[in-house]
Amino acid sequence: MAKKASSGTADKKASDKKAGKGDAKAGESVDKKAGALKAATSVNVRHILCEKQSKALEALQKIQEGQRFDKVAQEYSEDKAKAGGSLGWQVRGAMVGAFQDAAFALQPSTADKPILSPLVKTQFGYHIIMVEGRK
């Protein structure tokens, strides 16, 4: 946080001069991440969707045992993203709240060594999420 303090004051001065031409919004997303991940506007996301929590937990266990995310997604996911769970590049606002929050909080990883979200509950069911890229 100390690193950003000096650039934060410069950003504030710049945004004061520009009177809110987008700088404030960019500053907010950087502040929320507090040095963890760079702010991104889109993520290349994969997920596994299960209606029942027990099935989602079973899929999660398979991945934790070393199975590839895409293979487990083909076997367990109950939505149209059966092609290894890929949803492709998604922008902020295109995903439901809890799913979006989890996706944008994840570090990019690969299907053979995924960094996973905990189970995320939405109106569609239970999701296991991984991100392959951020931009």
How does this model look, in words?
- The chain is α+β, with helices and mostly antiparallel strands.
- The protein has 5 helices and 4 strands.
- It has a 4-stranded antiparallel β-sheet, with helices on both faces.
- A hairpin with a 2-residue loop joins β3 and β4.
- The radius of gyration is 18 Å and the shape is globular.
- It starts with a helix and ends with a strand.
**What would you call the quaternary organization?**
single chain
Q: What's the average pLDDT? A: 80
The largest sheet is: 4 strands, antiparallel
Distance between the termini: 22 Å
Number of helices: 5
Helix content: 40-55%
What structural class results from the helix and strand content?
Answer: alpha+beta
List segments where confidence is low: pLDDT < 50 over at least 5 consecutive residues: 1-35
Estimated share of beta-strand residues? 15-25%
Instruction: Report the count of strand segments.
Output: 4
Shape designation: globular
List its traits.
4 strands, alpha+beta, four-stranded antiparallel beta sheet, 5 helices, 135 residues, 21% strand, single chain, 42% helix
Please write out the topology.
Blueprint: H1 2-18, H2 23-33, E1 42-50, H3 53-64, H4 69-76, E2 86-91, H5 97-105, E3 120-122, E4 125-134
Antiparallel strand pairs: 1-2, 1-4, 3-4
Helix pairs in contact: 3-4
Summarize it:
The chain has helices spanning 2-18, 23-33, 53-64, 69-76, 97-105; strands spanning 42-50, 86-91, 120-122, 125-134. The chain has 135 residues and is of the alpha+beta class. α3 (53-64) packs antiparallel against α4.
